Amino acid sequence: MEQRIVILGAGESGTGAAVLARKQGFDVFVSDTGRIKDHYKEILFNYDVDWEEGKHTERLILNADEIIKSPGISEKSDIVVAIRKKGIRIISEIEFAGRYTTAKKICITGSNGKTTTTSLIHHMLRKAGMNAGLAGNVGKSFAMMVATENYDYYVLELSSFQLDGMYDFKADIAILLNITPDHLDRYDYNLQKYVDSKFTITHNLSEDDFFVYCSDDEITIRELERIVIKAKQLGFTMKETVQQGAYVDRGFMKIEVEDDLFEMSLADLALKGKHNVYNSMAAGITGNVLKIRKPLIRESLMDFTGVEHRLERFISVHGIEFINDSKATNVNSTWYALESMTTPVIWIAGGVDKGNDYNELMDLVKSKVKALVCLGVDNSKLHGAFDSVIPVVTDAASMKEAVLAAYRLGGKGDTILLSPACASFDLFENYEDRGWQFKKFVREL
């Protein structure tokens, strides 16, 4: 009897898992409560995979040997509760794909900076002529790549939701950028559960592997004192000097791995802002661990162009600069965005709030924001936080309305910043859709 694999969710991750499972000879069934996009249906059809949409049929799901769950499906959903009750193992697509590749895996997680750091490391490896794929929470699904490509290295961005279904998966280099309260709605508003989820990236690391982390991050350090990690640990910091890892000294970033020193001026880094110094340090350490030639590491850190929807300066209209930071789906990301602003800001924010505490933005908002455009179905929490602090606060029910309102409030020398601090699902398909709509309506001004 063929083993039966059932996949819940037929997006990028689920479809990739289905293709890999088919190629590995499993009996595969895909089930999605939503409508499956035509592009994914075509792939499922080409690989002869059975699927259903608009429902989860229990009798077709609860006969599985193993279930691969999409990161977006909640543990509290009826079907997951039924699966758990039956005792069928649920894994993530990343766990599944990891079984079928011998490539080296560089895995990046953290509450903020994941996509930038993942893309930067991938850029560095490609520049060094290494055969490296970019996958996970960015680009194609890892399973699809394992099924259809042949890479020696994978640079994987992993969200906490993807880490949740991982058991035997092992990184060769595990990178934890930071931990700030995010997605707590998924972790019963229990920070420790979220921390445990992020630290899954360190599971199964051996003495030959590397764990790269921010030693300025209090939550990370507290956790490291509590647990045992076999891997070689390399911290990066802007507050002290370290023997092994990365630090800043008189305007230079210095990286020491084993007995090798690499240094470059912070002024030469392509990515600006304090948070990007951390991202560049993590990437620089990785390059040194992989023994990439120093001139290539330096060049990659100097010529990387950044990530779409992350502090993307894309256009000026009548002396007003527009910045698309749609990827800022939590307060901490927005904090970084506001921190790097040097001109008066008209701020567009709002969406689905994940238990946000806006207090940590107060000082920055008071000193930098002259107007706020609230873009969401329910903006009451933003009003409650900022009505008494920001001179002008207004509402918008669509991106077009938000852009027009912000433009009317702005003048020459101002910056209009889309940095929502919230998820996008109330008005948009995802943060990319939100960012693309922003750029479209700005170009139409």
Written account of the structure:
With 445 residues, this protein is of the alpha/beta class. The protein folds into 3 domains: 4-91, 3-Layer(aba) Sandwich (Rossmann fold), CATH 3.40.50.720; 95-303, UDP-N-acetylmuramoyl-L-alanine:D-glutamate ligase; 312-443, Alpha-Beta Complex (Protein-Tyrosine Phosphatase, Chain A). The chain is built from 17 helices and 20 strands. The chain has helices at 12-23, 38-46, 58-61, 78-86, 93-98, 114-127, 142-148, 160-163, 191-199, 218-226, 274-289, 294-303, 331-339, 362-368, 380-386, 399-409, 431-443, and strands at 4-8, 27-32, 50-53, 66-69, 89-91, 104-109, 132-136, 153-157, 173-176, 210-214, 232-236, 245-249, 252-257, 260-265, 312-317, 320-324, 345-349, 369-375, 392-396, 415-418. The strands form 3 sheets. Strands 7-8-6-9-10-11-12-13-14 form a 9-stranded mixed sheet, covered by helices on one side. It has a 6-stranded mixed sheet with strand order 15-16-20-17-18-19, with helices on both faces. The chain has a 5-stranded parallel sheet with strand order 3-2-1-4-5. α1 (12-23) packs parallel to α7 (142-148) and α11 (274-289) packs antiparallel against α12 (294-303). The mean pLDDT is 93.
